[in-house]
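Its record is quoted verbatim for completeness.
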Amino acid sequence: DSLQTIYFTGDAPTIEDNVFDGVTATAYYPQDASGWENAIRNQYGGKITWKTKDYGAQEETRKGTCGENVFWELKDGTLTISGKGEMKDYGAQEDVPWYSSIDSIKKVVIGADVSTIGDFSLYGCKNLKSVEMSGIVIIGRFAFSQCTALDNITIPNATVEIKEGAFYHTGLTTIELPNSVENVGKSAFEA
């Protein structure tokens, strides 16, 4: 169940039948590569949605809202959260507006006037390595959970609360907690 996205970056490799049996995923292959006929793709097994990808193209900019006065923009692997006030809390990973692009997020920059990081907002961003934030007062439930490439973070001096599971199952090896933090929720840093 964990394999969700497959990227092929060249011509179709020789793969034994049913390599992806039991897998439900989206697979991308180069639009200009050879050997990707339907008959070949069907041999791979699984419930694979096949899509072409132009690996030479610049990533498109995506943007929208993630709070009453809070906005997001995703470009070239950087998710920028800006505006003023609280981010929206989400009920699950798939509820965030950038969900279809979570694998491309490598860096997050949160503006100084954004006061909270919403529940589940960055859950599962497995390629996230860098977070810049300064005005965050509350880090929401499971906000960075499953961000396995995230190995260090500095919690801002403004932060008062880190909610349940905020950094559950990340790659953290170093964390700096300021004396402003008053409450840390259950399993916040559980490995």
